[in-house]
């Protein structure tokens, strides 16, 4: 296997081309990692979530790490790790454009929505549904590619 | 989608049946998540790694979180999160049985070895190769299943 480092542009393209990542947050010294669906735009990863452990932890400590990979031909693969910062985006302080964009991108995937929730037809708003809309500001990105 | 909580036994079976997970560690308040190959046995996840950032971080703070998932029929999936503790297993203090077991399980997969390293024919020993052999003691496990 040949392994090389991805450029920042290649990392960004991989983040844009994919929808499923693994999101790690940390409380005190304990990390916690879960899969999540996201949409990449303008150096941010946008996502919706039901309230729960990861939201509580990211509210307490906004530092996160996101890992995304894709498989190439044969045994080849690419993996990107993005370190970033959690930012919650309540409806009432704007961000309608970002929310609609993320909703538009994510709702194209039949299986994107959080487990346990019926898929809403319209973007959830904070006054009517418990869903949390947030984004990860990407502060540092790195990636590797392995090819045969 | 119907979602239910997995029993501890179901979580263990999923960990045993899979080889690829995402391993999150943390330094100070910053988490870091990467893919890794593992073999599950006796409430531990065994793995080899080249030295690097994740090894340094886990040496400094052994608290980790591992996420593993598998896809079922249609849109169905299962995901397990295991919180645990990093334990390094140098050759010189024993653990030959565990090392040989992990090597035996992992070497069956053509693509399991760390990128950038030639796949060794025999298990690496700490005196001759820089590979780090470690295990994650599973302290807490939880999982969910979504089915149509």
Please give a quick description of this structure:
The structure is a homodimer of 148-residue chains. The first copy, chain A, has 148 residues and is of the alpha+beta class.
Total count of strands of chain A:
8
**Count of runs of 4 or more consecutive helical residues of chain A:** 3
Q: Low-confidence spans of chain A: pLDDT under 50, at least 5 residues?
A: 115-121
Sketch the major β-sheet of chain A.
8 strands, antiparallel
Which percent range describes the beta-strand content of chain A?
35-45%
Report the structural category of chain A. alpha+beta
Please, what is the average pLDDT of chain A?
84
In whole angstroms, the N-to-C terminal distance of chain A is 5 Å
Which two protein chains have the largest interface (Cβ within 8 Å of the partner's Cβ), and how many residues from each? A-B, 33 and 33 residues
What oligomeric state do the depicted chains represent? homodimer
Q: What is the percent of helical residues of chain A? A: 10-25%
The backbone outline of chain A, from C-alpha atoms, is: globular
C-alpha-based Rg of chain A, rounded: 16 Å
Order of helices and strands of chain A: EHEEEEHEEHE
């Amino acid at each position: 296997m040949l392994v090389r480092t991805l450029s920042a542009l290649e990392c960004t393209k991989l983040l844009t081309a994919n929808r499923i990542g693994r999101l790690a947050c940390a409380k005190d010294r304990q990390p916690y990692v879960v899969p999540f669906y996201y949409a990449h735009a303008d150096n941010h990863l946008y996502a919706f979530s039901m309230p729960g452990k990861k939201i509580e932890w990211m509210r307490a400590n906004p530092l996160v790490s996101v890992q995304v990979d894709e498989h190439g031909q044969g045994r080849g693969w690419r993996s990107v790790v993005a370190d970033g910062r959690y930012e919650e985006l309540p409806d009432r302080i704007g961000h309608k454009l970002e929310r609609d964009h993320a909703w538009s991108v994510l709702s194209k995937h039949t299986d994107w929505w959080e487990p346990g929730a019926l898929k809403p037809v319209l973007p959830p708003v904070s006054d009517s549904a418990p869903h949390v809309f947030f984004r990860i500001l990407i502060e540092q990105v790195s990636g590797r590619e392995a090819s045969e």
